[in-house]
Structures are given as C-alpha cells and as structure tokens.
Design goal:
3 domains, alpha+beta, 12% strand, 5-stranded antiparallel beta sheet, disordered C terminus
Length: 257
C-alpha cells in the first residue's frame, strides 16, 4: 500500500512539474520582453505612477500603446510617395557607410528573410517520388525555378516549368533537403500547409482533416508514459516447464502388432 501511494505521489509531482514549466517559462519570457520594450523610460517621468504596482503596469501599457502607434505612423508615412523616396535614400546611405553597413545589412536581411518565409516560403503541398521510384514523400513548393536553371533541368528539350521543393524531415520539419524538378513530376494534393506540417511532425500519426483536439496533449503523453512505467515486467522462469505427457493413440498398439 505504501509503495502504491509513493508511486502516485511521484506521478503527481512529475505531471505537475512538466505541465507547470512551459507556463512559467512563457510568463517569464513575456515579462522580460514586455519590460525590455516598456521599461526604458527614465525614472523622473511620472514618478507618482511608479510608487505602486498598478501605476507601473499602467505606465508600461501606455508606453507599449505609444510604441505601436509610432510604428503605425512610420509605416503610414513611408508608404506615401515622399516617405518612399526618403526610405530609399536612407537605405542606400546606411548600406554604404563602412562600419554601419555590416550591422544594417545583416539586420535588414534577417527581416527580409522572416517576411519572405512568412509570405512565400511554402506555397503549396505536393507529392513527389523520393527517394526512389515507387516511394512518395510530401514536399512544399517554395518558388519557381528561374529560366536559366530550368533550361539546364530540361536537358536541351523544350524548357518546362520547374519548381523548387523542400522535403522536410520527421519530426523536425525545419530541416530537410531542397530539390529542383519539373512541375510535371509533382502531384498536387488537397492538403493545407499547416496540415502537412502536422502530418510530418507526428510521423503520419495525425491524418489530414483531424481536429486539433484529437492530437495527444502533453498531459496525455505523460499519462501514457506513467502507465507504461507502472506495467509489471514478467521475469522468465528459471526452470523451463516440463511438457505434459500425452497418451499414445488408441490404435498405436494394434498397428504395432
């Protein structure tokens, strides 16, 4: 009885720990980013608000709203004709300054890659024969191959439309391989990009079209792990069992005689 009670206590501690850590980590990271974005005001600004916890929180919220409003104003201004010209001039100027250009160009490339990845990285889901004929893999069409490369892929024939596809790995879809192939060698399937990513990450366990509630949660996985640990392991017998003696057939003696 004491052993069973100890197992239950240990299981509850493990479940509580693994379920609490993601929540606490999310709160701490969000609080750090929130303080980083709104905690840069000097202490002399509105000192009476800083005297209480509610006042500091209200000041941070007002600061965050002001920052978002400033971003919106800058975006509205740059999207006009005058703002576009000023942006192109400043972009060219910062990209030519010897020391600053390394930092500016690097940060600009990161921003461009993030925006490009969000908008046009995975356009559609297709199926191709990989790694050999008869075996199929899910792939994501990323872009249309430029005509010079498409001409090389066509091998002197009429240049056909070629696409670049990304084949993800399981269970980490962020790694994979890039393949260039004619569009005719791909098979379009009726599947969203999010459904295909879920299918890859679950190693095919979650079929397209299933609801998110059907996917196992962290609690379900912990419960399954604990149940597997509680199953008794049967040890093999030390002495093999002696086979039971079987009576000879009734007509055995008659046949012998």
């Amino acid at each position: 009885m004491l052993r069973g009670l100890t197992k239950k206590i240990r299981a509850n501690i493990l479940v509580g720990f693994f379920l609490t850590v993601p929540i606490v980590a999310t709160i701490l990271i969000f609080n750090f980013l929130f303080d980083l974005a709104t905690g840069w005001l000097p202490e002399v600004i509105l000192p009476e608000w800083r005297s209480s916890w509610a006042g500091r929180l209200l000041l941070q919220i007002v600061t965050l709203i002001a920052i978002l409003g400033a971003f919106g104003f800058v975006g509205l201004f740059i999207r006009n004709i005058l703002g576009r010209q000023m942006f192109r001039f400043s972009d060219t100027l910062l990209a030519r300054i010897p020391v600053i250009r390394r930092i500016y160009v690097s940060v600009r490339q990161i921003s461009e890659s993030l925006f490009t990845q969000r908008k046009t990285l995975f356009k559609e889901v297709v199926m191709i024969e990989y790694p050999r004929k008869g075996l199929y893999s899910l792939a994501f069409v990323t872009a249309r191959v430029p005509d010079p490369l498409a001409a090389h892929l066509s091998r002197g024939r009429n240049p056909a439309e070629c696409v670049s596809v990304f084949i993800p790995t399981t269970p980490n879809p962020t790694s994979g391989i890039l393949i260039l192939l004619p569009r005719s060698e791909t098979t379009a399937i009726d599947m969203d990009v999010s459904e295909a990513l879920t299918f890859v990450m679950s190693a095919g366990a979650v079929s397209p079209g299933q609801r998110g509630s059907s996917m196992p949660t962290l609690l379900d996985k912990l419960e399954s792990w604990l149940k597997q640990g509680e199953e008794p392991v049967m040890a093999p017998p030390l002495i093999p069992p002696v086979p039971e003696a079987t009576e000879p057939p009734a007509n055995a003696n008659a046949t012998h005689n």
